[in-house]
Amino acid sequence: MDRSSPVTNRDVIWVWVGYIALLLGILALLYIAYDLKYPNHFVGDMYSLEVMFRLVVLSSAAGPMLIGAVLFFLGRHKNVRRWLTLGTTVTTVSSTILIAMSIGVAHSRHMDEVRKTYPQKSVEELLAIAKGEKDQHAVDQLIIRADPAAVPGLASIVTDDKEPGYLRYVAAEALARIGNDDARMVLEKARDSCKDAWFKEILSRLVDDVTHKR
Fold this sequence. Notes:
Order of helices and strands: HHHHHHHHH
Helix content: over 70%
Distance between the termini: 80 Å
Number of strands: 0
Number of domains: 2
Shape: elongated
C-alpha cells in the first residue's frame, strides 16, 4: 500500500491480520500478567523460577510486538506498504508466542484446579492418574497418606524402566514413606535390578532409611 498504488485485496488482508494479531496478543499479554499477579498454586522457590522464565519470554515477545504495532500503524497512517507488511509480520510472530504461552498458563491453572481434588480421591484413583497421566502430584498425595494399600501400584511404577524418571523417583519416595516390609522388598528389588547409577544410589539410600526406621 505505497503512495503510487491503490489499496489491493492483499493489502486489506494484511491490515486485518495485523489488527487481529495485535488484539489477540494484547489479550494474551493481559492474561499472563493476571496469572503472575494472582497465581492459583503455591508460590515458593520453584514458582519464582517459573515467574522468571515467564517474564523473560514476556519481555522478549512483548517488546517486538510493540515495535511491530508501531510499524503497522505508521504504515497505515503514512500509506507505506513496506512498513505495514513488516509491522504485521513482527506483530503476528510476537503475538503467536504470547498466545502459545497463555495457552500453557491456562492449562497449568486448569491442572491446578484438578489437583485440588486429589485429597478426595482413593488410592486406586491416584495410582491410575499417576500411571495414566504421568502426574507426580498424584504420587505426592500417596506420600502424604503413606497407605500400605498403595505398595503394589507404586511397585509397578518403580520397577518399570519405561516410566519417566521423575515419576519413579517420587514413587520410590512414597514406598520409603510407607516403610513396611513389602515396601522395603520392592525398593531392594528395584535397587538390585536398576541400571541407572543415579537412581540406584537413590534407591540404596531409601532402603537404608527404611531399614534404620524399623
